Amino acid sequence: MPAIVIVGAQWGDEGKGKATDLLGGRVDYVVKPNGGNNAGHTVVVGGEKYELKLLPAGILSPNVVPIIGNGVVVNLEALFEEIDGLNARGADTSRLLVSANAHLVAPYHQVLDKVTERFLGKRAIGTTGRGIGPAYMDKVARLGIRVQDIFDESILRQKVEGSLRQKNELLVKVYNRRAVDVEEIVEYFLGFAERLAPMVVDSTYVLNKALDEGKVVLMEGGQATFLDVDHGTYPFVTSSNPTAGGSSVGSGIGPTRISRVVGIIKAYTTRVGAGPFPTELFDEMGEYLQKTGGEFGVNTGRPRRCGWYDALLARHASRVNGFTDYFLTKLDVLTGIERIPVCVAYDVDGVRHDEMPMTQTEFHHAKPIFEYFDGWTEDISSAKTIEDLPANAQTYVRALERLSGTRFSAIGVGPDRDQTIVVNDLILD
pTM of the full predicted structure? Predict the structure, then answer.
């Protein structure tokens, strides 16, 4: 059975957790291939809201094996705090597996993340301060500590010493902070070893064996396309590759085994943190979308910047990821808006762009060119088919589909698991 990838098509917070949860009853494994506890998902099941940060959303689906893949950077303290929180609410987390090759977020990564952001001043990226970037920096610099290392105290100590040799110089001499003690960090990690050990596996072997046995594997990307370190709005991006290609790298599942790549996209657009955002609203309508859509970060509680749907972003995301399907979320949030603008092109210093500009400078200067659609006032939260939607809502959805260049196979009309219009089967169709 081939694998399926779910990818955010904007700047994150599109509702990937809902999509994973919707498919959860029909897949056998859900693997998170990138990011860390900076990549939150909100899932609503039976009126109960769950805010997941490091754990795959598939952990809420019975009989699904959730896996934290090799491409994730894991904060062990945050991991067990999240597991304990779910256990306290009656969720079953006993099936969770963690890749032995996943890298770990150390306390000094979080310190460096925060002091670096402050040091950047006006050029700050707007990170969550969770140490994700510094952990990925260590991974690429070959100074990282992996899950498997905490089961060999000698290796762990050597790696911590090597990593801190440079960092302590930086912390003391540049940032005027105290040096980090090697033994303190070693003891910190060893304190998790006993509880973590039963979860740790060779995830690449487990996942490929599952595919060989005809199991369905879902790869649940964190963050989103335009936060990708290669394809996003650099430098206002994350430190991993949350595009479809990154899912292969972060899970160990080869690209030829992937059959479906589903882009998750909101019926409007949001962004957390700094960086260009052509359709951003700075008026009462932006506040309306923020309030009505509950647009506040799962991890930090930061208000999300809100704007209208951007068809250029949608088309570019489809190209970068090779989307086979789009899952449109939060259509219900637009109910009651009289006229709904959609960005169909950019004006960059008097020149019309019908596709994404090549340079960051051009994108930063881009002004949206809108096409307008009549809104609707009817409640759509119980719609089961596109034909159940008001005529104007149907027109809006069809227009977005045409402008986005990829078929819409599912449409979210409310936050709950069953408030979804399924047009095409996301696994088999």
Answer: 0.90
